[in-house]
Amino acid sequence: MLKRGEARVSGTCVLDVRLWGKESGLSRPYPVLCHLLDTSAVFQELWDVMLSEETRSALAGALGLGAEQARSTVSFWAGLHDIGKITPSFQVKSPVSYAPVRDDPSYVNAPGAEGEKGFRHEIASHWSLYGLLKQAGYPDDERLMRRSVSHQIAQLLGGHHGVFGTALKSKQAARPSGYNPGLGWGGWAEQRQVHFDELRRVTGAFAVPRGGLPAGLAVVVAGLVVVADWLASQASGIEVRMPGAGWSGTVAEVDAHWQVAVGSARGVVRAARLGRADFSAEEFGSMFPFAPNSLQRDLVEHLPAMVAKDGPGLVLVTAPTGDGKTEAALFAASLLGRAANARGLYFALPTMGTADAMLPRVEAYAARALSGERALMLLHSMAWLSSPGGDDCAGVSEDQADGVVSAGRGTAVEADGWVRGAKRGLLAPLGVGTIDQALGAVLPLRYNVLRLLGLSDKVFVVDEAHAYGPWMHQLLVRLLEWLGEMRAPVVLLSATLTGRTAGSLVDAYRRGAGIREPSGVVPRYPGWLFASAAAGVVSSARGTRTDRVRTLRVSHRPVAWDALESAGAPVLEGGRRVVLREVLAPVAAGGGTALVCCTTVAEAQQTYRDVCAAFPELAASPGGVRLLHSRYPADERARITAECAAAYGKPEGGPVSVRPSSVLVATQVVEQSLDFDFDLVVSDLAPIAQLLQRAGRGRRHRRGPFGRPAWAAAEDEPVLVVLDPLTAEASRPPRSWGAVYDAGLLMRTSRVLQERALAGIAVPGDVQRLVDEVYEEEFVDRLEGAARDELVRLDEERLAGEAAERHLAAWTTICSPADVKGDLSKLSAREAGVTQELLTTRLGADTGRVLCLYRQPDGRATLDPEGTAEVPGGGRWGLRPAELAEVARRVAPVPGRWLRGGEPGTAVPQGWGTHPSLRDLVLLYMVPAGEGSWVCQYGRYTISISGVGLEAH
């Protein structure tokens, strides 16, 4: 038993340094008090380095404390996070350390307390801290726990493992050990009190807050506690601070440890690269190496005065593809970020491909416009394969599926490995990635507060804000509410956004900021508007000129649908195949480029074969006919995309000439954020917004009088050929399209195209009106009889489906910040029936992932058809980083229905490990089938891979 005088005494109880807090990977157990001190020290450094002056002031104001008092108090809380480790159910995990404690009569255990494995230490922190804080004088309301500051802080700290516990009932709070014997009695409670008092003494946190934290500030503190805990738990740092033999926790020893912890915290946080980027450039010319166009110039001339008058907020930019929305967004982000004193930005895009393409543009912007910490992360599930540094994967670890650091020559400070780890990517000051990474913040996923923290003090830029269905739109609405609550600036970009959708996004942000009145926004196209987060002011949308007023010539071609006919089948008059031959003939004969955009991968593959058969000389020439879709192995798709960027991208400086004849057959992957330019665009029928997006790839850049073939000489009159299967003989979309598009929207679009084909579509003048027109309720009044009845029925189905998705999103997302009302468990609670599978931001995405292994004549299986890349065997610790990268680069997505039922022997070998990129991966053992094709049987499908990608029959 410890004796008085050996250690720090609180009341009549002696600090017991035998109680351990960390052990794994260490030379000996680390006292729990030391870890509490370390975490408080790191938190103080994070407070100074990560938080803006505005956030620190807001925290101090909410607590009713001075700035220094708030810093000491909240860092004291951070240290308390692991006080639940002073329990028998935790201490027993180290039998050697626990033995003398177990035999100490001052520690009283209820029967079975040591085996309470479900009573985790973070739960113990929640249950025990309420009483400790209440006793310390923190405001309390025993009748309504959500109004109790003591309980809010206890619940917040109990959530440091990513899940907040259910709010305690008054009777539970009054007798915590009675309801949870795992807390222990006697000496256990006394030691929690001693550690509480000693940590409070060292941090100087004697001030008592007068109020609690609003939801937005609560998640910031909760997220910072997690980060401080993780940084303070790095084994290499702990060993340096490990107390020597005979350390007994005297006041002098504890104070000395605190000083060491404070000193080392600076280096720990600096090494993690969690600092702040500074939006230092003020002029457009300092950010970009070119003069602003009309849209950008209007923002430059008018947005600064609005922000100076009403503070930062949300900017919505609506403009055609190719009108410089990206640079407009980055200029607006700089202005808003400087006004809000934001620490960085996150640029969210709809797909991995668009995120990869955006990364170098944001990196170039950061090099010119930002100073301070400029560590840039690429964030999506396969981002670690897209490192701009090349093929070196030595830094890849099992939990690095969230992102990879980009720090090229233009980036001043290179982030190290810590921020690469799982769930940490959004903590870097700069990020480019998929919107899924951000939307996960509003799903009840473990550590969602880290995502909210990562976005809380950044400018959030959303590209293609029109591109998301009702499910993802509802998630975006909820995220905007949280960003409004946290006063994080937002920039939304769209080429085709309905007025109703624009209003819902702006109103969500304002609602989060406490402004309930509807904005009544009516977007202008092209144009922009500004909504202040503080003043409640919403500017009238400003219409801007475009540097390219164009007339889109629409060739509306009703066709019989024969897209899946084999390339050798007879070409039928009036069919899609014969029209394709007609419209592509000038390309084959006179040079130039064309895009053929198909609805499904299978139709794109068959169309590619058919175009090759129709134009054999073109197909034989290098790059004459290309195919791009999602159903390729990752490395093959990346190679094709890079080829397309070189062939169809923006012309570099120097003389421009007519490009050689080339046709790209593709799916919707070319629709968003890829800067491709074609002389002709051909598309299957799609909703009007998607058609206008695709049309934006037609004669996108000025190539001058010698840059386009004679048949496409009119640069400001691009041609869009629409292949429409809705004819008098076939009033419904092809069955092969499934549910890709809503049939009612296709019917509406088809009707509008019939009416507009002759006059053409003025871009941008007609765009907003056309998009709104296709969605207006009165549209059905244009039709009569059976056609009207059918459209009414289809509209009812669509609206019901959209309502169901919105309801499901509301059911699965976390609540709005206004509804937290002091109970943080609402950020972790899942409704009954909500599974991990349902918590995906791609509702209804029926996808699987496969890796093709090629059986060679000698019986070996290889990663490549040529037989040069051996299949790795793995080992005790799984695949080595280079092997893992080699495997992941060859993975391809396929429809989930192909893989239902399963086949024996197709699971990933145990020796490959458990890296997230291997999760649910199916191995397909392919055998040669001639002419470059390989096949295998999987369930009821014959799956093949060839130059056109993966197919199944």
Description:
Helix 1 runs parallel beside helix 10. The protein is built from 30 helices and 31 strands. The radius of gyration is 31 Å and the shape is globular. The strands form 7 sheets. It has a 9-stranded mixed β-sheet, sandwiched between helices. It is 39% helix and 14% strand. By secondary structure, it is of the alpha/beta class. Strand 1 and strand 2 form a beta hairpin.
Quick take:
With 953 residues, the protein is of the alpha/beta class. 39% of the residues lie in helices and 14% in strands.
List descriptors.
alpha/beta, 953 residues, seven-stranded mixed beta sheet, nine-stranded mixed beta sheet, 14% strand, single chain
Radius of gyration: 31 Å
| Proportion of residues in β-strands | 5-15%
Terminal Cα span? 75 Å
What does the main sheet amount to?
Answer: 9 strands, mixed
What ranges have pLDDT less than 50 throughout 5 or more consecutive residues?
1-7, 387-416
**Helicity range:** 25-40%
Class computed from helices, strands and strand pairing: alpha/beta
Number of contiguous helices: 30
Strand sequence of the main sheet, in spatial order? 12-11-13-9-14-15-8-16-17
